[in-house]
Each structure stands twice: as C-alpha cells, then as structure tokens.
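Researcher: I'm comparing several assemblies side by side, and this is the next one on my list. It has 494 residues spread over two chains. Same procedure as the others: predict the full complex and return the structure.
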Amino acid sequence: MRMRVPLLLGFLTGMFVLVQFFIPHKRMAEALQMLINWGMIVGTFALVLGLGSLLRTHLDKIRRRRPAYVYSFITLLSFVVMLVLGLFWGIGAKTPFNWLFNWVQVPLDSTVFSLLAFFMASAAYRSFRARSVEATILLIAAVIVIIGRVPISGEYTHGHWPQFTEWLMIYPAVGAKRGIIFGVALGVIATSLRIILGIERSHLGGD
Amino acid sequence: MWERLLHIDRRFIYLLVFAVVTVPLVAGWKSPPGYTNPWTQSLYDYIDALPEGSPVLVAFDFDPSVKPELQPMAVAITRHVMRKDLRLIAMTFMPAGVLLSQSVLDQVAQEEGKEYGVDYVNLGWRPGIQAVLLGMGENLKRVYVSDVKGNPTSTLPVLRGVHDYRQIKLIVDITGTGLTGAWIAFAHQRFHAPVGAGVTSVVAMDLYPYLRTQQLVGLINGIAGAAEYEKLLDEPDQAMLAMPGVTAVHLLMVLLVLIGNIAYFASRRRRAAPQHEPPEPPTGEEV
C-alpha cells in the first residue's frame, strides 16, 4: 500500500499533465491551475523541510564536536540573527537585515565566486597543454574566443576577429551543444515515462 | 630555466591576476567595447521598438555570488525599459534576488523619476519554478496575489490589463543559472511569450542554440555584453568600468597559456636530447 498509492498518484498526475497539453479546454486549464497551486504549496513545505534538515545537520555536528564544528556554529548563528532581524524589523530598505545582506552576504558571496578567476589562471598555466591534436585545436579556439571577447578586439586585432569568434560560437560550438541537448532531452523523456509508468521507483526510496 | 618556469609558485600567478584586475579598477579607467555583439543589439532593438506603456517582465534570477557580473546588465536593462516608458514587472526565482532586484529598481527609478506601483512593480519570490511559470500563463495575479510591499496586485495601476503572458510584450531573464531554459520551455514554447536573456559568460554557451531558432530574441553575454548594452544606451557605467580589468585578465590568461606551453615543450625537448656522458665501465657480469 505504501508503494502503490504514491505510484498511482504519480501515474495519474503525470498522465493528466501530459494529456491536458493536447486538450485546450477551460476545464482542463482550471484543473491544471489547481495542480499548480498544489505544486507551489508542496514547494513551500520542501523549503521548510530544507531548513529543518540544515538545522539538524549542524546541531548534530556541534553536539558531536565533529571537525570544524565551529563553522556549523557560525552557520546557525547567522541563520538565527538573519531570521530574528527579518521577522522583527522587516527586509525593506534601511533595515538591519538589508544592511547585513548588502555589507556581509553580498561581499562574501562575490568574493568566494571571484576566487575562481585565480584558480582558473593557475590551472590554465599548469594544465592547458597542446599535448595532442584535439588539445591543440581546443587551445587555439580558446585563445581566439578569449581575445575576441575583450574590448580591444577589432581595434588592435584583425577587423574580422570578433566576427570569427562569433562564428566559432554559433556554428561549431552550437552544433556540438545541440547534440548534447537532444541527448539530454531524450534521457529526460525516457526517465519521465519510467517514473509515470512506475518502472523507475528510486524517488520513492526503493531500488 | 624552463623547468623552473614550469614549477613557478602559484601565489605568483595569483598576485599577477590580483594586480591586473585591481589597478584598472582603482584607476577608474572605463573602456567602451570596440564591437557590439549582434545578439546584444537584437535585444536592445527589440526593447527599443516596443510601444510606450507595454508591460515588460524582468526576472532578476541571480544571487549575490554573481552580482558583480549581472547587476550592471540588470541596471542597463531596467534603465532602458524605464527610459522608454514601458511598464516594468520585476520578479525572481532566487530568494536573495528580492533585495538585489529592489536595489536596482530603486536606484534606476530615482534616476528616471518613476513611481512604484504605477510605472514598475516588484512581485518578489515564489517557490516552485515550474508551477509559477505555468501559473503565470493562466493567471498572473492568482500566482502573485500581492507584491513585495504587500499591496494587492489587483489594485496596482502598473498591472492593469495584465492577466497572463499574452499581455506581456517581452520577458528578460537575468541569470547565472539554467533558468532561462525553463523560461523558454514554459513561457515561450507553451504560451508564445517573447523571451530575451542576460547571463553570465559561463551560461551563455548553453543558450546559443536558442538564438538561431529565434526562441530567444536576444542575449547579453556576461560583463562584456553589459558594456555593449551601456554603449548602446550611451550611458557608461559599472560594466565599462569593469572592462579594462576584464581585458587585462583575459590577456594575462592567454599569455600564461602561451608561456606554459613554450616552457613545457622546451623542457620536454631538453629531456629527450641525447646525454653526452661517458659509458659505465663493464662489470664483467654480462659475460
């Protein structure tokens, strides 16, 4: 029963969403709207579950004094501070929440992301080698695109350099990308059908 | 020498990157792009051709991690929409995007003298991406009953006559994620809403297949695309300020790759060359 009811629900919901796409009737649109509302409610509960999971994981780390548990303490402290500030003073302009967001979260997040540039430069120097024909083609294409994407391109390089960069992006790169997209789309269709028909059951906790 | 060059301390490379990015920023150099990408131009032209009062939905689907790359284009798009007297409807699928979008809207609205609720609105964040995208195709005001300030959407003048995607003349998704694909799949393919995008350079390649098929009306590609948009608007701002640093670090990357390869091949040739050392004396064991 624990297996059959979720499978039946998945089958009915999946089939309805699939079929309604081909029946442009008012009743179908209304039923879809109702399903969408349910989806949003379920999404909100998923968020609450996520927060619960975050709290449980970090509380457990602190309780067991796991390595680097001090970061779990900082995470929980930040969570509580932002929650309290948001609940009592709101999140509008000139609120403590907004101040912390703009002057702590934004710089921290941007800094972590910007570190990528340093690692990329170091990795490119150490690993980007013309060891084979394929690697050489990749290297030449990369250099052309890198130079083609900066403002000096076209002014200090050959006039057609930016257009050639664009050609590389639109034809060879898109050709390969389209192949990947088709492959992924076919995989998604196959997996969706397996879920709707109850063949794929891993999302229910089974094998 | 080549071996030493190959095993250079990585901190030296970090220092170089830091220097070439920081110096132009501190000096305040601005660099207009020498070339305008056709996809940036097509998005600009599309917005420019919209009649006054047309509703344009801008999705601020980014969080603080990509703010330096995406906020300049968000400002440029918002500025263009407001300057053309179009109605701007803002929303986001990222919880942290609510405050980022509000700061962009407040800044540009003040510059352009626009009034909240009349010329623009911020609908904020709702959970459930697919549900919201499909829901807006049926009834936008049922998905967004109120805006971020708690005003009922049914009473806002900016949303008068806007029921679903059919009244929205353009959707612009500004993101560093794959959300534009969802906008194309649901808003464009299902409800035929025109979609444009402004994305980080990393994401841009994923969207190129949708340009040739006209599923995207235009694309702003990274900070370089944002600088191109600022040039089209004739409003040099943050993106143009970032461009000299971006240019310098791009050229440094090319230089590092070239030096790395030269050092690699030179050291390999040296290792492969025959060594002129005297032969070992015979031990007698081989006999």
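Model: For your comparison table: Chain B has a mean pLDDT of 91.
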